[in-house]
Amino acid sequence: MADLLGSILSSMEKPPSVGDQESRRKAREQAARLKKMQEEEKKKKADFRKKMEKDVSDFIQDSDSKKKKYQPMNKIERSILHDVAEVAGLTSFSFGDDEESRYVMIFKKEFAPSDEELEAYRKGEEWDPQLAEEKRKLKEQAQREAELESQKGPKEVCPSSNYRDKYSHLIGTAAAKDAAHTLEANKAYGCVPVANKRDTRSIEEAMNAIRAKKLKKNEDDCAGASSS
């Protein structure tokens, strides 16, 4: 038992091998480099934030400035600028289609952008208040005209020319046939328009009239026979 315990203690007291020493040295160097990079990144962020705080402060103190557009930034820098603007009581937005071109614009609260202005920036267009006002007036005028038209009801379409005149070479023969047919019908009714010869009575009224005529004829016949 004593020999076994001694062998364990002796193995624990042995110095690490050359391979273990090299691995530990590389691990320590890697940890040192990582720590240095983290410290440098932290300092870089702090310096950038300090720069933005001064820039935003100058912007606020400039009474002529209403908004400011920055050059494209990476995601971390944009996040810092948005935070600085919020703390300073400003409004900020990011614009740009892809990560490399995205940039930040800051606005003073009293000059916060409208939805139309934001839409222009999202499309990559310059904002022109005068042009936007003209477009708004034209749009309102078009809406008023559309409402007036809807109140008038459906619009009656008047052809610019008579279709019979326009297509006389095609319908001339048919028109002549219609005229001949109308003339023959008028002759059959004693040259009276067909519309005037239409019987508008009901069937019952017509039958009553026929019966009355027959009855009157019979009475006339009987009266004639008696007189003879």
Task: Describe what this molecule looks like in 3D.
- This protein has helices at residues 2-12, 18-61, 75-87, 115-122, 129-152, 163-166, 168-188, 194-197, 203-227, and strands at 67-69, 91-95, 103-107.
- With 228 residues, it is mostly helical.
- The protein folds into two domains: 22-124, Ribosomal Protein S8, Chain: A, domain 1; 163-227, no CATH class.
- The protein has a three-stranded antiparallel β-sheet with strand order 1-3-2, with helices on one face.
- α2 packs across α3 (75-87).
- The N and C termini lie far apart (175 Å).
- Residues 46-109 form the R3H domain.
- InterPro entries: R3H_dom, R3H_dom_sf, R3H_sperm-antigen, SPAG7.
- GO terms for molecular function: nucleic acid binding.
- Residues 21-57, 134-155 have a biased composition (Basic and acidic residues).
Poorly predicted ranges (pLDDT <50, ≥5 residues)? none
Category by helix and strand content: mainly alpha
Q: What string, H for helix and E for strand, traces the elements in order?
A: HHEHEEHHHHHH
Q: What is the level 1 CATH name of the largest domain?
A: Alpha Beta
Work out the count of structural domains. 2
Radius of gyration, in angstroms, nearest whole number: 52 Å
Mean pLDDT: 78
CATH superfamily assignment of the largest domain? R3H-like domain
Organism: Erpetoichthys calabaricus
Protein name: Sperm-associated antigen 7 homolog
GO molecular function, one term: nucleic acid binding
Domain R3H: 46-109
